[in-house]
Amino acid sequence: MHPGPLTGPAHPDGLLGIAVVRGRSMLPTLREGDRVLVRYGARPGPGRLVLARLADGTTAVKRVEGPRPLRTGATGWWLLSDNPAEGVDSRHRGPVPDDAVLGVVLLRLWPRPRRV
Question: Which of 8, 23, 72, 73 is positioned for an S-S bond with 1, CB 3.0–4.6 A?
Answer without folding.
Answer: 23
